[in-house]
Amino acid sequence: MPRNHFKVGKLAFTVVSDGEIKLDAGATFGVVPRVLWEPHAGQLDDQHRLTMGLNCVLLQSAGNTVLIETGNGNKRGNPNEGGGELLEALVAEGVRPEDVDIVINSHLHADHCGWNTRLDGDRAVPTFPRARYIAQEKEWRDATNPNERTRATYLQDNLKPIEESGQLELVDGEKQITPEIRLLPQPGHTAGHCGILIESDGERALYLGDLVQHKMHLERFPWIASFDVLPLVALETKKEVIGRALAEKTMLIVSHQPFPGVGFMKQEGKFRVWELVQD
Fold this sequence. Notes:
seven-stranded mixed beta sheet, 16 strands, alpha+beta, globular, 22% helix, Metallo-beta-lactamase, Chain A
């Protein structure tokens, strides 16, 4: 089992997995020609899909049990194959759904908020009955008013029950959630996408959400997934975020890399390289 417990300054956090999903390799690398991306893709299945992680983060901050992202879930109608293991992963860390105080979503695609709700018979209800669910207001507007392109991944069963229960908290732009956790707008994948910054004693870790879906998106800025709604905005966001992470030695948590997906960017000559935190 790979290491999944880390520290930022004095603050400990745990990467918990919802399992794995399959994503089309060509879509993941967008307009990059196959001859360029294939050497970096690893093993593909018989449908030319990558096996991708569903890395979420669990931590204690200011007396709150905080869960960043809820994975793919297990509800019918989800366009992504896989996932569904998050609740077992939380139990393995001694956390029950009713123990969670805050849930933070980087954005509201189905593979990032699937366990926001669970099925109770035929009805979707909040999985974490005591939690505040925090998301960007712009992302919520887009998710609850999807267009022809986005409708398949904005599943209303992941969203509406938390609004109806009164647990939804929408924020506009940068927002301090606890003294150690801050939301940072990082548009591109979606217009309302955000990263989640964790800070303690001068050290930083950043949960990237879907700013990148593969480590090559970190190492080569122009490599942008076709899933990104605003690809040219994503390009500029990546340059700013990754440049700052290099300068400040920020630990990066990559949601779709193989578990646990935690590493640092390093400059090696003219190349940027993402390196896993080793045991």
